[in-house]
Amino acid sequence: MPKASEERHGHDSLEKVLSVMVDQMRIQQEQMQMQAQALQEQMQVHLQLQQEQQTQLQAQQEQMKELIITLASKQGAVQDASKDQYDQLSKEVQRFVSDEETGNTFAYWYGRYGPIIRDAQLPDHKKRDLILMKQDEEAYRKYADEVLPAQPHDLDFDTTIANLQKLFASKKTLIRRRNECLRIACPPLTPTCVPFREYANTIKRMDEDARLKELDYTAMKTLQFVAGLQDPSLREVRLRMIRRLDAHRDEAPLTIEDLVAECENFTALKMNNTDMEGTRDIHAVWKKKEVTCFTCGGPHFRRDCPQSDNTGRKKRRKTGAQFGRRRQCKHVVAFDTESARTYLDVVVRGCNLKLQLDTGADITLISRRAWKRMGSPALEPCVMPVETASGTSMKIYGKFSTDFSIRDRVTGKMLHGNGTCYVTEGSNLLGLEWCIQLPAYKKLKGNFYCRKVTSEEKIRAEVVADLKKKYGEVFNSDLGKCTKSKGINRDIKDSARRCRAGQEAAKMPTKTVRHSWKMEQKPWNRLHIDYAGPLNGKMYLVVVDTYSQWPEVFEMPSSSTTAILRELKSLFARFGDLQVIVSDNGTQFTAKEFQNFCEERGIKHMRSPPFHPQSNGQAERTTFACRAALRTSDKDTTVAAE
C-alpha cells in the first residue's frame, strides 16, 4: 500500500514537471515567434530605407550630371571669350620698337596700351605673353639676354613690366632733360609750316618729362648756375657739378652757395695738385720780330723813316686791302649723280629689293632693314675683314647663303642664281660675285676679250685696203686742208666751262646744268606734294599726279608728319602705291617717320634743292591754282555753292 502510494506520488510529480516544461516551451515558442515577427518588420523597414536612399542617390547623380554639363558649357564659353579677347588685343596693340631719339620708350608705349591690357579679362600669364609678343626682334633679344639665366616666360606679369620699364627707359639724366627743355626753340615759320601748335605740344611734353613743376626757386638757380659753365676751361668743373646734382637725394635741396663752395674747393685741389707735380705746361709762344731801319737804325721800317729822301724809284705803299688776307670763294659745281647710277630689281627670299649695280664691289651687301624684312635669316660670322674703296674697315654683322632672282630690264625675264649676302648698316650693293652669274655680264666680258694681234705686212695691207674701200672719205687726199672746224667755238666754250681751274678762278659760279623731269608713261607713277596756305587760318595738302595732272587737296588740321601720313595712307588705299614722291625740304618730309614710310612701301623719296622751288614746279603751280580757287570761293557765294 505504501509502495503504491509512492509510485502514484512520483507519477504526479512527473506530470507536473512535464506540464511545466510544456508551458515553458510554449512560452519560448511564442517569444521566438514574436522576435521573428519583429525581425521581419525591421527588415522591411531597412529595405524601405535602402530603397529611399537608392532613389535619393540616383537623384543626386542626375543633379551632378546636369551640373557638370552646365559647368563644362560655361567653361567652354569662357575659354572662347578669353581667346576672342586675346585675338582682339593682338590686333589692336601695336608692336613696340625702342627708339630713344624720338622718345619711344617702353613707359610711353605702356602708358598708351597698358590700360586696355590691364582691364582685359585675361589671366596674368596671357597678358605677359601678349606684351612679350609685341616686342620687336631686337627688343626681345635684348630683354632675353637681360633676364638670363631666367627665361622671359618664367617671370610673372608685374616683374616683366618692371624689367621692361627699367631696360627701355630714357638714358638721359634729369639735369640733361631740364637743360634741353630750357633751350628749346620754335621752328621757323614758312609758307608750308605753321609751327606754333607743334611747338606748344613739344614744350608741354618736355616739361612733363623734365618734371619742371617740381622745381622751386632754389633749384632753378642751381640749374642756371650749372648751365652757365660754358667756357672750355670749366669743362671739368661743369662735369663735377652735374654729377653732384644728379646724385643728390637728400631732403634738403642744394643751394647755389653749396655749388660755389664745391667749385672753389675743386679748383683749389686742382691747383694744389699742379703745384705738387713740379712741372709746368709749355704752350705756344709768339714773339714779335724786331724791326731795324737800314737808313737810321731806328725801330721802324725804311719806308717810314723820316730821313729817307724818297728819290729814285717811286715810293709805293700797300693799301689795307693788300695787307689783309686774301679771301676768295671756290666755286663748286654739283652734278646729278643719281641719274648715272643703275639699280636692279632683285628678289631675295621673297623680298623685293633695289640693289645698286657696282661691279667694283667684290661682295653683295644689304642693309639691316632689308635683312629684317626677309625674316632675319640666321647669320654666319664673317671671319675675313671687309674694307671700303678708301681702305677703311666696314662693319659686317654677318653673312648668309641664299638664292636670288634678277629681272632682265630688256626681256623682263627672271634670271636665277645663288651666292653669299653680307649684312651691313645701310648699304644695298649688287657685287661682282652675283654679277658674273648674269648672261649679260658674261656676254659683255666675252665681247671685250683681247685677241692676238699680228703685224704681218700682208695682213696689214689687206686691212688697209679694206678700210679704204669701206671708209673712202676718211682717206681722201683733200682731207685736213680746211682751216676751220665746224662747231669749234661751241667745243671751246664747253671745254672752258668744264675746266676746274677756270671755275675756281671765275668771278661768278657756274650754274649746274638743269635737267628736266622725265616724262612718265603711265598714271600714278610719280607724285608731287606740297603745302598750300595758310588760307583763312587753314592749311591744305596738295598732291598732283605727273602724268594725268590729277590733283588731290586735303584740309589739314595739323602740319605734322603723322597727319600727312594719315592722308597719304588713305590716298594710296584708293589708288595704290607708286614709285616716286617729290617734295621740298620741309621738316614734315625730312622726318625719320616719313622716310620709314617710304622705305616700307618701296617708294623713292626725292627732294628739291634748297631755295629752288622751281624744281617742284608741278606742285607749286597746282598750289597757286588751289589758292586762287579758294580765294574765289570765299568771295563768290555761287562758286562756293557749286
UniProtKB/TrEMBL annotation:
Keyword presence, RNA-binding: no
Keyword line: Coiled coil, Endonuclease, Hydrolase, Nuclease, Nucleotidyltransferase, Transferase
Residues covered by the Integrase catalytic domain: 519-642
Pfam families: DUF7083 (PF23309), rve (PF00665)
Gene Ontology MF terms: aspartic-type endopeptidase activity; endonuclease activity; nucleic acid binding; nucleotidyltransferase activity
The keyword NAD belongs to this UniProt entry's keyword annotation: no
Sequence ranges assigned to domain Peptidase A2 in this UniProt record: 353-371
Coiled coil feature spans: 22-70
One BP annotation, GO: proteolysis
PANTHER family in UniProt: PROTEIN CBG26694, PROTEIN NYNRIN-LIKE
Protein name according to UniProt: Integrase catalytic domain-containing protein
